[in-house]
Every structure is written in structure tokens, then in C-alpha cells.
Design a protein that fits this description.
By secondary structure, the chain is mostly beta strands. It contains three helices and twelve strands; from the N terminus they run βαβββαβββββββαβ. It has a single domain (5-209), classed as Alpha-Beta Complex (hypothetical protein yedk fold), CATH 3.90.1680.10. Strand 8 (127-136) and strand 9 (145-154) form a beta hairpin. The two termini are 20 Å apart.
Length: 212
């Protein structure tokens, strides 16, 4: 499961998605409970063709949960997303979004111990990860919270993604969308959404160990 992403710079977001990042400030490296940019339909509904970039917590926090839940809900298995309590409301309401990243990170155990690898587009383009988002109203004079979880699929047969995680674990991969799929994904119907949950071509990704 992916628990470490690198968000793009503001100018990269503006160029790729033709959006105004507004007050766009994120950490260079994002982990669960950190804030990251997501792309979703404007105002979070499907009544307009416009999109917006908003700040959201990495890790799903439904209205009934505490923020600490984000430490375990940053990924969701696509096979069970529609039924799991933490994710089913977002899925049912078609709250689909894109998480833009420069790079994401996974552990490889091929040397016998965990070594972090960075995975990015082979030509340096942004990667758009399929995700779902949720809204938690403000409580106790706090601020409302938008949060997200990245969808995952089985990767036992994927030439690249099967190299990561512990040998005894099922191999999983986040869902990377192609640019021509972006608009269709965030506006997909419940019947259409599963068709986007496909492996990304390994030849279009570059992976290598990263320095500590």
C-alpha cells in the first residue's frame, strides 16, 4: 500500500490541469494525516464541467470518525470500497478525485530488508492517482475537513509493482490514470467507475531506490 507521495509544485498543477492553485502550499513529502492536493469537480458535485484543486488530508476521515483514523485509511481496496464503512459513503456519492503526484514511494524487500523506491513517469510527467474524497463538518469550533483515500488493485502479475512490499503479502498497486481519463473518472457513474481500475503500463514508469 502506498503511504508516501510527493505533490507537484503549484506551477505544474496550473499547467497540467489548467487550474488556479490559489494558496497552494504543501510539504515536499506527504504521509498519512498530512495535507495534499486533490482535483475534483467544482464544489464537489457534478453540476458543472469545471474542476478545482483543494487541500485534503491523506487518509479518509468520515463524518463519524476522529482524524487519527487517517493513519489506516490512506488506501482502499477497490474490491471492497463500496461496502467498507470508512469508504462506502464516498463511493456511493461518486466522490471521485485525482491525486496529482511527481512521484510515489514503495518498499522493496529484494535485498532481504526494506529499501524505499521512488516511482515516477518515465518522461517526468505528472501522475494522476484515482482516489475518493470525503467531507467532515467542523466540530468544536474547528475547521471542516476534506480527506481522501487512494484506490488500489491487485498487482501480483504487474511487472513492476509486484516487486514491492513483503514477500508474503499480496501485491497491491495504486490506480494511475492516463490524462485522457481524468475528466471521465471524476465524473464517472457507479457503473463506469470500475472500468478505470486497471494496471498502468510498466513501460511508462521509472523506479529506482532513493537515498535515505
Amino acid at each position: 500500500m502506498c503511504a508516501h507521495i510527493k505533490p507537484p509544485r503549484a506551477e505544474r498543477i496550473a499547467e497540467r490541469f489548467n487550474l488556479d492553485p490559489r494558496e497552494y502550499t504543501f510539504k515536499e513529502h506527504v504521509f498519512p494525516t498530512d495535507m495534499a492536493p486533490i482535483i475534483r469537480p467544482l464544489r464537489g458535485d457534478h453540476s458543472t464541467e469545471q474542476d478545482e484543486v483543494v487541500s485534503a488530508m491523506f487518509g479518509m476521515v468520515p463524518h463519524w470518525a476522529e482524524t487519527k483514523l487517517a493513519r489506516s485509511t490512506y488506501n482502499t481496496r477497490s474490491e471492497t470500497t463500496a461496502t467498507k464503512p470508512s469508504f462506502r459513503n464516498a463511493w456511493k456519492r461518486r466522490q471521485f478525485c485525482i491525486v496529482p503526484v511527481e512521484e510515489f514511494y514503495e518498499p522493496s524487500y529484494e535485498t532481504g530488508k526494506a529499501v524505499k523506491w521512488g516511482i515516477r513517469h518515465v518522461h517526468g510527467e505528472l501522475l494522476g492517482i484515482a482516489a475518493i474524497w470525503e467531507f467532515k463538518p467542523a466540530e468544536n469550533n474547528g475547521a471542516p475537513l476534506i480527506s481522501f483515500s487512494m484506490l488500489t488493485i491487485n498487482a501480483d502479475e504487474h511487472p513492476l509493482m509486484k516487486r514491492f512490499h513483503k514477500p508474503e503479502d499480496e501485491k497491491r498497486s495504486i490506480v494511475i490514470l492516463k490524462p485522457e481519463q481524468y475528466d471521465a473518472w471524476i465524473n464517472a457513474t457507479l457503473e463506469e467507475a470500475p472500468t478505470f481500475l486497471q494496471p498502468y503500463p510498466a513501460k511508462e514508469l521509472h523506479a529506482e531506490p532513493v537515498a535515505r
